[in-house]
């Protein structure tokens, strides 16, 4: 139970950061430092997803899709 709360907290922060970076990049296409930051942030998200799939906290068919997650976070 505690692990799931920690997972939700960590991933929600990372997902919000990734969404904010994507929003910034919509207006600033040539911002290379921010693109690098997005790559690093999403790499962390993908590593966590891989880890939690192995620990069976997430479903095996879970996929990270920024567009779908954007609608979930917006609610």
From TrEMBL:
A GO molecular-function descriptor: small ribosomal subunit rRNA binding
Keyword presence, Ribosomal protein: yes
SUPFAM superfamilies assigned: S15/NS1 RNA-binding domain (SSF47060)
SMART domains: Ribosomal_S15 (SM01387)
Sorted UniProt keywords: Ribonucleoprotein, Ribosomal protein
Cited Gene3D superfamilies: S15/NS1, RNA-binding
Species assigned in the record: marine sediment metagenome
Cellular component annotations (GO), alphabetically ordered: cytosolic small ribosomal subunit
Keyword Ribosomal protein part of the UniProt annotation: yes
The protein's name in its UniProt record: 30S ribosomal protein S15
Gene Ontology process terms (BP): translation
